[in-house]
Design a protein that fits this description.
Blueprint lengths: L2 H18 L17 E8 L10 E4 L4 E3 L5 E6 L3 E9 L2 E10 L6 E5 L19 H19 E2 L2 E2 L10 E8 L2 E13 L5 E9 L2 E10 L6 E7 L6 E2 L15 H6 L1 E10 L2 E13 L2 E7 L7 E8 L2 E12 L10
Parallel strand pairs: 1-7
Antiparallel strand pairs: 1-4, 2-3, 2-5, 5-6, 8-9, 10-11, 10-20, 11-12, 12-13, 13-14, 14-15, 16-17, 17-18, 18-19, 19-20
């Protein structure tokens, strides 16, 4: 697989993620009176902890703020609910957050930008080798990729837990066409509670980009990352604060209240399962539909976003099992 194909595939993931992370913008970010009921601050710092002047903070509510000499951007919210916030600097995404109002109102989040070393070409280049353009693309889209793999519309993709060694592989379809597959695996839990997970990204059933990431103990952030492109050796990827925020967890009552059908037979590449069908109205005209099955890591065999009676995209379980272990010598 060429790096250009990876770039194109990452762009697709970014577009899908834009539709799946935070729904505050679907309502325009205003209640009926247009009164800002909640607010929070994003502190954006660069080298030597200086204010990162010119960084752009965007929210799914529609608000965009450019960071000035204060280094702090204040966002206002007029509706309760989930929102997606991104922080960019010179075409690089340096942080992304899923937040919920009013629970996150009044908080200050910090995004730190650490410039990557300039690529030198060949396998020794930053971000896994290759051109400077690809390095910049990777730096911008890695955070979105992880948001997409581990959450749907800002909420956790999983209805039950994985145990160490368990994995699931998914076929992603957009507009009726199979686009790529992704695999995620819970590798191990360290004594301090941090967890190593593995994610692979395959396009057109050829080659794969393999990544292993170390999450903080509550999955609030990514602490380390290693990656491997085909025909290259594993490399450490520079990770900065704010790359990832944990998806919002649904209450057990909300999950059970979303069940619209039980005993539904669902056939996916991994087999036929008896499922509960769960539906959430995440925005006007948009429904997030999950099919829950027992004895499957994460508890989901199929998920789909439906808008105006049309499938926008869907993920189907291709395989699952045990025995996943590090392939990059991460621990």
């Amino acid at each position: 697989m060429t790096r250009l194909r990876y770039v194109k595939a990452f762009i697709l993931v970014a577009l899908l993620a834009a539709t799946t992370s935070g729904c505050g913008g679907c309502f325009g970010g205003y209640n009926m009176l247009g009164i800002p009921l909640f607010s929070m601050k994003i502190e954006v710092r660069g080298p030597n902890n200086a204010a990162l002047i010119g960084a752009v903070v965007s929210c799914s509510s529609g608000e965009t703020v450019t960071v000035d000499s204060s280094g702090v951007a204040k966002l206002s919210f007029s509706d309760a609910g989930p929102y997606y916030i991104s922080v960019r600097y010179q075409d690089n995404m340096i942080a992304s957050y899923n937040v919920s109002m009013p629970s996150d109102g009044g908080k200050t989040l910090t995004a730190n930008y650490v410039p990557s070393a300039a690529p030198t070409g060949g396998s020794g280049a930053a971000m896994g080798g290759g051109s400077n353009a690809f390095a910049m693309m990777g730096a911008r889209l890695y955070p979105i990729l992880f948001q997409y793999v581990f959450n749907a519309y800002g909420y956790s993709m999983d209805l039950s837990a994985y145990t160490p060694g368990q994995f699931t592989q998914w076929q992603i379809t957009s507009d009726g066409e199979k686009e790529y597959s992704t695999r995620k695996a819970f590798l191990t839990k360290l004594p301090n509670g941090q967890e190593w997970w593995q994610v692979s990204f395959v396009s057109n059933d050829k080659d794969s980009l393999l990544m292993e990431v170390l999450f903080s103990d509550k999955h609030e952030s990514i602490r380390r990352m290693r990656q491997k492109f085909p025909n290259e050796s594993p490399k450490e990827v520079p990770v900065t604060e704010g790359w990832y925020t944990t998806p919002m967890q649904l209450t057990p009552e909300s999950i059970e209240g979303s069940v619209v059908k039980r005993g539904v037979s669902v056939t996916v590449p991994a087999g036929t399962f008896t499922c509960d069908q769960l539906e959430f109205g995440v925005a006007p005209g948009m429904t997030l539909r999950l099919f829950r099955a027992a004895n499957v890591p994460g508890g989901v065999v199929k998920y789909e976003m439906v808008g105006q009676d049309k499938d926008m995209y869907k993920g189907e379980l291709m395989s699952y099992g045990n025995g996943a272990a590090t392939e990059l010598g991460s621990y």
